[in-house]
């Protein structure tokens, strides 16, 4: 299979975010599905620093960053927040079933 190494498939990106967000939630020693905004922003920066091909180019003067798609602190959205919301929903669902 030919592959452009600078490109991540949707499922690969979802897997990367799933693993990293799970790790971030366990940093406190217990499951914390409500990490501080600064921690989410640090994770987004670390993703594009570690994997520059995942950064999005930004125009000069734009309020967006090259990691905004992973976490946007102004709108509190992005792949990281989406994963956290999914984890919260699943956690609440499992608590109801007990």
Low-confidence stretches: none
**What sort of overall outline do the alpha carbons produce when their principal axes are compared?**
globular
Structural class, by secondary structure, is mainly alpha
The figure for the number of domains is: 1
Count of DSSP-assigned helices: 3
**What is the string of SSEs from the N terminus onward?**
HHH
Helical content stands at 40-55%
| Arithmetic mean of pLDDT | 86
Instruction: Give the N-to-C terminal Cα separation.
Output: 45 Å
Q: Count of DSSP E strands?
A: 0
Major β-sheet annotation: none
Amount of beta strand:
under 5%
Cα-atom Rg, whole angstroms? 15 Å
Walk me through what this model shows.
With 98 residues, this protein is an all-alpha fold. It has one domain (10-96). The chain is 50% helix and 0% strand. It is built from 3 helices and no strands. The chain has helices spanning 10-26, 37-50, 79-96. Helix 1 packs across helix 3. The longest helix is centred in the C-terminal third of the chain and has 18 residues, at 79-96. It is globular and about 50 Å long.
């Amino acid at each position: 299979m030919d592959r452009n190494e600078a490109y991540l498939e949707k499922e690969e990106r979802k897997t990367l975010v799933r693993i990293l967000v799970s790790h971030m939630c366990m940093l406190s020693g217990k499951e914390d599905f409500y990490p501080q905004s600064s921690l989410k922003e640090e994770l987004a920066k670390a993703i594009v620093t570690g994997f520059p091909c995942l950064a999005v180019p930004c125009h000069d003067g734009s309020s967006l960053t090259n990691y905004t798609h992973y976490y946007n602190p102004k709108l509190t959205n992005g792949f990281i927040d989406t994963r956290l919301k999914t984890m919260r929903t699943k956690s609440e669902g499992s608590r109801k079933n007990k």
